[in-house]
Amino acid sequence: MHSSRLIYLIILNLCFLPCAKANLESQLKKAETAADTTAIIEIARRMLDKNPEDLILLRKIARAQLKNDSFSACKKTLVHLSSLLRKEDAEVLEMFGDIELKKSNEPKDSQKALVYWKRALQIDPDRVSVLVRLVEYQCKNLNKQKEAAYLKKLVQLTNDPENLSRIINLNLRNRDWDAIDQFTKRLRASFPSSDQAKKWNPSYDKLLKIKMRLINIDSSLSKGLYMVNHLLERAWIFNELFIDQLAIEDAERALEIRPDSLWVKYQLGIILANAGKAKEASDQLGLNFWKYSYKRTNPGQQFLTKLHHLEKTIAEKGNVEALSERAEILYREGQTDLAIADLQMAMNKNTDHIPSLLLFANIQIGKSKTKDAQRALQRILNQESDPVTYISSGHRWKYLDNGSNQEIAWRTKDFDDSTWSSGPSELGYGSNDEGSGTTLSFGPDSSSKYPTTYFRTSVKILDPSLFSNFLFRVKYDDGIAVYINGKQAIRQNLAL
Asked: What contacts 24+ positions apart, CB below 8 Å, involve 230-236?
């Protein structure tokens, strides 16, 4: 009885060992499928207890430790693995390089990574993962020639549209026209429906048309001629071709040469925004270019030429008129803060410069800074020896407050407003701050008032040429649009 039980237990133990091993292998596969690196390390270590020199398990542990950023533990595993291999191994060297790069804080540390990867490539010249790392490294360190060399090798090994697109861009940077043609044909033949081909095809067709222009610009730049102008011209070519990185690099080089130029900054900002980097443009330049974000649009050559001309005039003469004019085009462009800065410089030079005071007042009204606007307007009035008032408080107005939509006909001079009501100003809903005047109807529901009330009046000015300026002051809530003879003169807090 006793001996038979012993035999049974021995047989049970012998059966249990292979079953346990099979169970661990199954668990390891599940962990690998789930990409659970912590579980991979734990299960593989338990399996190593039975075979401490299992090279496959050691590699799996090292890979998982690297992904977990457990650099010290990974290094120990790799050292142990190297001692068992007794010769240099491409994967081990690659992982040593990855560790150096991931923990690097200084350039010399990343140089160590480069040494490991190059040794790995000597052992296995076709190791794709190492080539990818070398391409990324050279790209980050702006070594475009070495990046192109590694990328060319990578493209030979992998027929990938992303890499083909990338090597085309690198060859464009180096102006290797034969290589551009070669890889474009390959991209079109192998991946005609890829996003990369769809994006590059129209750019390539445009490139062929402006190739000589680009060659001429390159030639002028190599001779140091008109550096900033040519850099910006080339930047806009690349922008049009959707080759954003080259466009940005040229515009940034132009700014390095002319760091104080608003004309250059403005073009760099638009190019950055076109490339989807409006926030970067704002952070770097302190200007708002969001309206150009992801769009191949710009203010137009007329605006940029005018900005350049005014910048030169201001730099040479400190001209008040030029400052005021630049403020106006910047304001129309939506750069309110820049416009105010120019106006303040203009008003510091000439406190009574009427065009600057008028524009400043208009901007401050839009920013709801009515006191600043009033002070500017008063400075204008103080200059007029005998101002003429055409519309004063109490003036009679025609008005329509029935909630209807009058479209655009009511704006014209000859519109028939004979059926409209009339009354003296102020015209409003009768709140305490409106004083006496005419009370308007807001409709039957005080919680849902009519969106628009219309007002019309007329004045006759026999000879407008006798006046240097006309001031229009109005009290409104919440928005207003003013038309004079059908043309919009004021618009505040209303959608276009």
From this structure: 231/257, 232/264, 232/267, 235/267, 235/271, 236/267, 236/271
The encoded tokens of residue 315 equal 């730099």
Strands 487-492 and 396-400: unpaired
Q: Inform me whether the pLDDT recorded for 22 exceeds 80.
A: no
Pick from 56, 112, 114, 117: which is nearest to 81 by CA? Answer: 56
Comparing CA positions, the residue from 255, 270, 492 lying closest to residue 363 is 492
Distances (CA, A) of 6 to 12, 14, 15, 231: 10, 13, 14, 90
What are the tens digits of pLDDT across the range 252-265? 999 999 999 999 99
Across residues 3-20, what is the average pLDDT?
Answer: 50
What number is the average pLDDT over the span 268-276?
95
The DSSP bridge pattern shows strands 427-428 and 438-439 to be parallel
Token reading at 93: 């060297």
SS3 content of the chain, % helix, strand, coil (to 5): 65, 5, 30
| Alpha-carbon span 205 to 53, nearest angstrom | 59
In single-letter form, the type of residue at position 150 comes to Y
Q: How far apart are CA 322 and CA 98, in angstroms?
A: 57
The reported pLDDT for the residue numbered 17 is 47
CA distance 140 to 100: 16
Mean pLDDT of the 450-474 span: 81
Residue 456's identity, in one-letter code, is R
> Strand order in 454-456's β-sheet?
421-424, 396-400, 454-456
